Amino acid sequence: xxxDDKKNNFIYVxxxxxxxxxxxxxxxxxxxxCAARLDDKIHFHTLRHSFASMLVQSSVSLYVV
Length: 65
Description:
Blueprint: E1 13-15, E2 18-19, H1 22-35, H2 44-57
Antiparallel strand pairs: 1-2
């Protein structure tokens, strides 16, 4: 659920005001990777690196990234 509430800094919450557990997100992502029969070396953190690489390839400054 996405929350448009200025009372907290969480973007994705399960219950208003309580952030999603990082382990839950990682495990659900891993289940999706397995279900899609993708490389089991892909982790949720891989998305961060992929996004950063795309920014650099698009000429975004490393200081910004």
